[in-house]
Amino acid sequence: MSTEQGWAWQSTQFGGYLTCDLLREFPHGFFTRQFAKQSLVDLTAHLQALAQPFRVKQVHGNLIHSTTDIFDNGITTLDYEVQLPGDALVSSKPDQAVWVCSADCVPLLIADVKTGQVAAIHAGWRGTALGITPLTVQQLQAAGSQTQNLRIALGPAISGQNYQVGLDVAVTVGKSLIPFKQGLTLEERLECLQNLENSPISEDATPGRVRLDVRQVNTLQLEHLGITPDQMSVAPYCTFQDSQWFFSYRRESVKQVQWSGIVSRIPKI
Which PANTHER family does its entry note (predicted)? Predict the structure, then answer.
């Protein structure tokens, strides 16, 4: 096991997967391309043998489901086609493993150290623009979580320096951070975003393009909710750059994914 910036590689016979020290009280993992042939049942067994796995049908939106929703809809398998459409999954009952898959999009795992609730989020640029991460936090709060008890890990995703997008995408995502005044041009809105402290936007040599850090956008959204920096941790890995470990659609143009999951536990009294 090796450690870097609060993140550690856990070794198995199939390869390594990442864990985050902030989530150390919860079985969890950000898995790599080495586990691509394993089922969610297999992946869950690496975390906690008796936990029950759950997933959704990811659609790049901001729909959030609970494991109770899955039961209520009579879904008893992990087959993709029968899953509820959504991009975040919340559990408030113990020994449930919630999973999301990603390549360049941001996988977030959230745990409440007091209630034992957990959530898994798939945040691409579209879902980020629609506020899926703050909406998921708000759903956890509605179920009893308090902001100060949340711990959030943002897993491997494409880094800002490697994610080139058009100005329209950057501004669409940026609207989730600041309200733009009426009448501003696209370029003026972009300038407002670039002037933010810890801006998620950086320059690109190609006209009409910029670099966008989607993980940074999610971090800023969480800060707006009152989540403090010491409650969050960003994995020091880029899916585009670290080809040994991660699939990247931007790099390979092939739909292959790695999975990220976390297991809920009983509340602390």
Answer: PURINE NUCLEOSIDE PHOSPHORYLASE LACC1, UNCHARACTERIZED PROTEIN YFIH
